[in-house]
Amino acid sequence: MSGIRKLIREAHRRSLWQIVIFYIAASWVVLQVAEHVADQFGLPEWTYGAAVLLLLVGFPVVTATAFVQEGVGSGGKDPDESDSEDAEPAGQVSAGTAVAPAAAPQGSAAVGPASQHRLFTWRNAIVGGVAAFALLGLALGSFLFMRSAGIGSAGTLVAKGVLDKKARIIVADFDGPEDEPALPRTVTEAFRIDFGESPIVRVAEPSQVAAALERMQRAPDTPLDPELARELAIREGIAAVIAGEVGTAGSGYLLSARLLDAQDGAVLASHRETAKNADDLVPAIDRLSKRLRERIGESIVSLGESAPLERVTTASLEALEKYSEAEFAIGHEGNRTRAIALLEEAVALDSTFAMAHRKLGIALYILREERTRQVEQFKKAFDHRERLGELERYITEATYYTYGTGELEKAVTAYQNALAEDPESHTALNNLGLVYQALGDDERAWEYYQRALEVDSTFSNPYTNGIFTLINLDRADDARALHDRMTSNFPGNPGVSSDGWWLYGSTGDYETAAGHIENLRREYPGNAFLQAEAQSGLAAIASVEGHLQVAEQHLGQAIDIQRERELAAEFLNAALDLAWLQLAVAGDPTAAIRTLEAALEEQPIEGVQPYERPYASMASLYARAGQVATATRYLDLMETEVWPLANGDPDVQWLYFRARGDVATARGNHDQGIIEYRRIDSRYCPICRTSALGHGFDRAGVPDSAVVYMDAFATTPRGARIQADRLFLGGTYERLGQLYDELGNLDRAVEYYAKFTELWVDADEELQPRVQAAQTRLEEIVRERG
Q1: Are 632 and 669 a contacting pair, CB within 8 Å?
Q2: 767 pairs with which residues across the strands?
Q3: By the 8 A CB rule, do 389 and 418 touch?
Q4: What is the pLDDT confidence band of residue 294, given thresholds at 50, 70 and 90?
C-alpha cells in the first residue's frame, strides 16, 4: 500500500494528471476527425477501430515519456536540450555534490537514466505517433485501391467483373425452422427490402417472380428454394441468387446469406450474423444485407448513408410479418383482398409504418375501393416518409401528390428526384408515365413506359399503361403488338385478358373483346372482383351494339356480385350503370329512375362513405331524365360533401362539372351549361368533354357547334373509350346523321347513318324503329344523289 501511495505522490509531483487529461481530450478530437473522415470518404468501418487501437497503444508511451521527462525537468536534463550557460565545467565538482560512481564494468548494459532519456523523449513520441497514423493511412489507401481495382480478397465482385453493376438478383426464400413458418418469410421480405435499397444491384420483386413462375408453368405460390430460384434466374437472364437461412439459438437467432452464381451455383460471397433476441432481429438482418452489399461493390459512403432497416420499415417484428405476408398475397397469390386485411393489421401494430400505409393505399386504389381510405393511407405514408429510404421517400411523395392532392406538377418533380436517385427505378419510370398521361402528354408518357420496359420487361404495368397510351396516340397496331408481347410474357395473368377487352373494345373489335372477357369468367371463377369486371365488360359490349336485354342481364349479375361483396359504393355504381343504360341507350327515363331509386332503397346513400357517394352521376341522371329538383338536391350534396375532399381528383372533377352543366341545361340555362362543360379537363378525358359539349350545344339548338363536338367524340381515339361508347356511341352516330342532314352536309350524313345502322344492325327489337328510320333516310339520300 505504501508503494501505491508513493507512486501517486510521484505522479502528482511530476504533473502526470495534466498530461493524461490532455492526451484523452486530444484523443477524443482525433477520433471525431477519424469518424468524420471515414464517413466523408467512404473508409472501411475498421478505420475507427484502428485509430482507437493506435491511441490506446500510444497512451502508455506518452505516460512513460511524461513520467521520465518530468523527472528530468526536476532533477536531470533532457538529452535533447543543449547545455545551458550555468552548466558546470567538465571534471569540476561543485561544493556539496557527491562524487559520481565509477563507470560500469565493460560489457554491462547501460540501463540508467541516460538510456531511458534517449528512448522516452517527446521527439520520439511525436515521430512514433505520426508514423503510426501514416502507416494506417497507407493501409487504408492500399485497401481502397485493391477494393476498387478488384485485387485480392479486398476487391469487390463488381470491380472483379464477377457481377455487372445494376445486375439483377433474386432473393430466394430463406430456410427456417418448421415450427415457425412465418419467421423465414418475414426475414426474406425484410432482407429483400434492405437489399433493394442498394444502388449497385436490382432485386426482383415478388410480382416479377410470380410472373416468371407462371411462365415456367409453376403455381405462383410455389416455394422459391435456391435450386428453383437458380433455374428461374437462368431462364430470365438474372445474374445471381441469394440463398439464406435463419435459425433459433435459445432466445436469439442465427442468420446467414450466400450470394450464388446463377449458372453454376458457386458461392460468390457469404456472411453470418447473430441476433440476441427478437428485438435485435431486424438490426441483424440490416447488418447481414449491408455486408453482402459491401462485398458486391456498393460504396462505403452509400452504405453509411443508407437508413437502417428498422427505420425504413418498422421496429415491430409482428408488423413486419404482416407486411411480408401481404407481399406474398399480392405477388404470389394475386389476392389483394387478403393483402388489404394483412396490411390493415400491420399499420394497426405500427401506425408509423410508412411502407405499409403506401402499399395499402395502392391495393385499395387498384381494386377501386374506398377512395376515402385510399387518400387517408397515402397521407399517412406521406406524413411518415422520413422513415423511408431516399428513393422510396420520393415515390411516396409523388404518390400522395398524384392520388391525394391532385398536384400533378409536384408529382412530376418528386418522380424526377426519384430518377435522379436511381435512373432505372422501374416504379418511378412507370408512374411518371401515368402522371404525364393524366396531364394529357401521351408522347412523354409513352417515352417513360418504353424506358420502364427496357429496364425490366418482367413487370406488367408498363404493358397495360403503354397499350392505353398507344391507343390515345392513334397507334392501334402498335398497341395490339404490345398486347401480343404481354400475352407471350405473362401467360395466365388476368391482366392479359383484362387489358385485351379494353384494347379491342375501345378500337371497335367487339368480338375479340368479348373473347377476352370470357377468358376472365372461365379462368378466375372465385375472384369476385374479376367476375364483376367480366359482367360489366360483357354488358358494355352488348350495350354498344344495342343488345339491351343481354346488357341488362349482365349488369344484373354484376349488381348481385357487388351485393355479395357487401361493398356499398360498388353496389350503387353497378345499379347506376344499369340506370344509365336504360336512360341513354333505351331512352326510357322512367325505367332509369325506378332502377336507381330501388337501389337507394336497398342501400341508402348514408351507408356509403362521403367521398364515395356517387352524387355527381346521380345528379346528371336525374337532370337528363327531366327531374330537375332531385338533380339539384344531389348536386348540392356533391358540392358540400364530396367536392371539398376531391383535391383535384380527375375522376371526380369531370363528373362534377358534367353534373353542373347537366343541371344548368335542364333548367334551360344553356349558356351556363356550356360554361360548366368547358371546365371539364380535356387533358385527362377529352372525350368526356366533347361528349358533354356536344350534348349541351344540341340541347341549346346550336347544330353547327353540336356536330363539331359530337364528331370529335365519335372519332377521338382513347384507350378506355368503351366506357363512354357503351352509352353514347350509337346515339351519337344517329344524331350526327340527323344533324348533318339538317345542315345539308349529305356526305357526312350518309357516313354517320351508315355507321349507326351497321353498329345496331342486330339491335333489340325495341331499338329497331330507330335503325329502320336511319336506314330509310340513308337510302333516300343515295337515291336522290344518284
Answers
A1: no
A2: none
A3: no
A4: confident
Cα→Cα distances 284→277, 291, 657, 671, Å: 10, 11, 55, 68
Which of 140-144, 382-386, 538-542 comes out lowest in average pLDDT? Answer: 140-144
Closest CA to 551 of 570, 561, 536: 536
CA angle at 408 for the pair 440 and 389, rounded to the nearest 5°: 130
How far apart CA 426 and CA 432 sit, in angstroms, is: 10
Q: What is the pLDDT of residue 240?
A: 93
Which helix (H) or strand (E) element contains residue 207? helix 206-215
Question: What backbone torsions phi and psi does residue 195 show, to the nearest 5 degrees?
Answer: -65, -35
| Count of alpha carbons within 13 angstroms of residue 73, beta-carbon side | 12
Among residues 474, 498, 471, 541, which one has the least CA distance to residue 727?
541
> How many other β-carbons are positioned within 10 Å of the β-carbon of residue 558?
26
Compare 356 and 299 and report the one with higher pLDDT: 356
Asked if pLDDT for residue 105 goes beyond 50, the answer is no
- Give the integer Cα–Cα distance in Å for 177 and 707: 71
What is the Cα–Cα distance from 766 to 587, expressed in whole angstroms? 10
pLDDT surpasses 60 at 10: no
Distance CA 416, CA 410 (A): 10
Cβ count near 186 (within 10 Å): 26
* Residue 115 confidence class, pLDDT cut points 50, 70, 90: low
779/457: higher pLDDT: 779
* Rounded CA separation 735/267 (Å): 72
The residue type of 340 is I
pLDDT digit string (tens) for 328-367? 777 666 677 888 999 999 999 999 999 899 989 988 887 7
Summarize pLDDT for 133-150 with one digit per residue, the tens: 777 677 666 666 666 666
Distance CA 337, CA 344 (A): 11
Is the pLDDT confidence value at 434 over 90?
A: yes
Biggest CA–CA distance in the chain, Å, is 151
Q: Are strands 252-261 and 267-275 parallel, antiparallel or unpaired?
A: antiparallel
HSE-up of 281 (CA within 13 Å, CB side)? Answer: 27
Angstrom distance (rounded) from CA 734 to CA 763: 13
N-terminal to C-terminal alpha carbon distance within the chain:
133
pLDDT the model gives residue 92: 40
Nearest residue to 518 via CA among 501, 543, 493: 501
Name the 3-class secondary structure at 243: strand
Percent of the chain with pLDDT over 90: 51
Give one DSSP letter per residue of 515-532, joined into a string.
Answer: HHHHHHHHH-TT-HHHHH
AA identity, residue 662? D
Alpha helices in 254-384 (DSSP H): 281-296, 300-305, 309-312, 317-331, 336-349, 354-366, 371-383
Contact (CB, 8 A) for 173 and 188: yes
Which residues is 243 bridged to in the sheet? 258
Cα gap 769→136, rounded to integer Å:
96
Q: Do the beta carbons of residue 603 and residue 565 sit within 8 Å?
A: no
Q: How far apart are CA 664 and CA 292, in angstroms?
A: 66
| Measured distance CA(252)–CA(274) in Å, rounded | 7
Residue 533 is predicted with a pLDDT of 94
- Cα–Cα nearest to 576, from 612, 629, 610: 612
Rounded alpha-carbon distances, angstroms, from residue 426 to 205, 386, 436: 11, 22, 16
Q: With left for phi above 0 and alpha for psi between -120 and 50, is residue 360 left, alpha or beta?
A: alpha
Helix, strand, coil proportions of the chain in percent (round to 5)? Answer: 70, 5, 25
Give me the chain's average pLDDT, please.
Answer: 84
Q: 19: alpha, beta or left, given left = phi > 0 and alpha = psi -120 to 50?
A: alpha
Q: Is the pLDDT of residue 282 over 80?
A: yes
Distance between CA atoms of residues 91 and 84, nearest Å: 17
